[in-house]
Amino acid sequence: MKVEADMIDVQSWTERTMEIGFTTNEQFQIWLVTQGQVEVRINGTRLRLRAGMALMLDRRQVTKVERTDDSFQMTMLHVDPFDLMAPPLAEQYVTPFIEKIGHHMLHPAEPGDKAILETLHKVIRSLKKDSAFALLDATLQLVVVWRYWIQRPPVTRRHGQERMQRMISYIHDHDTMKLSLEDIAAAGGLSRAECCRYFSKWGDTSPLAYVQDVRMQRAARLLCETDSPVAEVANRLGFTSVSHFVQTFKKVHNRTPLAFRKQKT
User: Fold this and answer.
1) Are 178 and 238 in contact (CB under 8 A)?
2) Going along 69-150, which residue ranges are E strands?
3) Most CB atoms within 10 A, among 50, 112, 218, 223?
4) pTM over the 0.85 mark
């Protein structure tokens, strides 16, 4: 399910649709886990979110989903906080706090967190209503959430965070090309050895292994969203051998492309 109400984007994720790997978010995000659990790394720090918990994310965080339960379900909200209030208020209550707080986990056992979790559920219910005031109600509730957020203590951006963001963006922007370790390292202004250390520290993986994961995630989307033959999908991703593509896909997704498509449709 995906609900868009102009400035507020709400998406539902399950273990089948949640993409494993790095992302860098361009908007303020809230992940609300409703079933199962998910293991993630935020700027290299490992976290486990269980049902009933939520994760609040500042812009430009390096997030890596590592594993989800088979019964996993989550609702994700994206919003630009500048859209929540008039410019004079945004200048005072948004501008000074952007990219200053990092992330925060909400736990239902904590009294303050519990109230915000209840408010988040109200936001989702409001956006599902067929009402002329649905967006207004959701916006007012999100202002309450934002007020809670900006009371969090600021954090120092982790050393190397911008370099990691640049390398991840470069990989995602060139996922149909055959990338070399030198290409990725250059995007972050690093040597090849430093590049490998970054990926190991931030995501327990190697740069080229992550390139393969990104390409296979793109392949999975193409198989689910199009009727393109496997050979065409392989060609679009730069594979000259279909058998090599099938072998690589199976290594990442534990099934052949055809079996994957059959299961997902």
Assistant:
1) yes
2) 73-79, 103-106
3) 223
4) no
Residue 86 burial class via C-beta count within 10 angstroms: exposed 0-12, middle 13-18, buried 19 and up: exposed
Q: Buried (b) or exposed (e) across 146-167, using 16+ Cβ within 10 A?
A: bebbeeeeeeeebebbebbbbb
Query: CA 247, CA 37: separation in Å to the nearest integer?
Result: 30
Q: Copy the structure tokens of residue 48.
A: 């486990």
Number of C-beta neighbours around residue 215 at 10 A = 23
Phi, psi of 255 (to 5 degrees): -160, 160
Q: d(Cα 180, Cα 249) in Å, to the nearest integer? A: 19
Q: How many CA atoms, within 13 angstroms, populate the side-chain half-sphere of residue 201?
A: 12
* Residues making up the chain, counted from first to last: 265
Alpha carbon 68 to chain centroid distance?
13
The amino acid at 24: T
| Cβ neighbour number for residue 262 with a 10 Å cutoff | 11
Q: How far apart are CA 129 and CA 132, in angstroms?
A: 9
For residue range 80-116, list pLDDT tens digits in order.
999 999 999 999 999 999 989 999 999 999 988 999 9
3-class DSSP state of 24:
strand
